[in-house]
Every structure is written in structure tokens, then in C-alpha cells.
Write a structure and sequence with these properties.
The chain is of the alpha+beta class. The chain has a domain of 55 residues. The protein has 4 helices and 2 strands. Strands 1-2 form a two-stranded antiparallel ribbon. The longest helix has 46 residues.
Amino acid sequence: LTDNWPSILEICHYFQELHVIDGIPQLIFVRSNYTIETVEAERISVDHVAHLKPSDGGSAATQLAAHLTGMHSAIKMLNSRIRVVHQYLQAMQRGDIPLDNSLLRQVLSLLRRLPAMESEKFQDDFLMEFNDTLLMTYLMMFTNCSSTMNELVDKFNTTYDRQSRRGGRTAFI
């Protein structure tokens, strides 16, 4: 999945309604529009599971490790920059460095853009997104397992089909 995908996918859903037209009951299809909203975590999990194959030879695990290493490096760099700003503000508070009102306004602006992590709405949103992500991951793993099982059944049927042509057993499924 790419970054330029929209976060809302539009699909069409039709359902049947019974209408009486000229005294004759008829079933007609009526279009029902709705949207499915996705978040980045869901797209990442769907993309990861969709490309995960046992025959990859570890390439999916290698890609995941590279992705996690990149995230770790980004978090480490962010942490070091926050530490520098924190030390600078502490030095300003102690009086070691003269007050810089422009810098203080920029830090305040940055802090106001951060989500309030102790609010009840944040906790509700976080838990909702977390549960949605877990559900999507579970469903994608279930789909992947179903696909693998289907491949196994196809191979099994192919094997027994060859034997039945030679007078062996018949197909299992």
C-alpha cells in the first residue's frame, strides 16, 4: 500500500427491496452508499500480511526487521532532540542562558499540537484504533491461512487425481 492512498475507500453495496409496480410485486436492487474508514496501522498490517508467504525465504521478515530498525532510529533521534530542547529549557529556567521568548513560543506551539494523552477521549480513540488494528490483523491472518489451506487442498487433490487415473484411490475433496 502506498502513502498516497486515500484513508476512505468508497464502495457500492446493493440490497433488494420489494416494490409493487403496476400491481406486480418485483424485487429491485437499491444502491446503498457507505464508506469504510481505515487508519495507517490497519493498512500496514494488511500490507504486511498480504505479502507474507512461507516460500519467501525470510524476505518478509527481513523487510519487517528493516522497517522496525528504521522506526527505532527515528524514535531514537526524536528522543535525543527532545532531550536537547529539555536541557536548553532547564538551562534557561536556571538562568544559565538568557530567556528567548521567540523560542519559548515555538516550543509552546509544538506542545499544543501534541495530543493530550491523559484525556478520556484520547484513551477511547486509542483503544478503538488498537482494537480495530488487532481485528484487521486477525482477519488478514485468517485470510492468509485460508489461502494456504486452499493451496494444500489443491495439491492434495492433484496428487490423488493422478493416482486415480492409474487405478488408485479417488480424490479426497
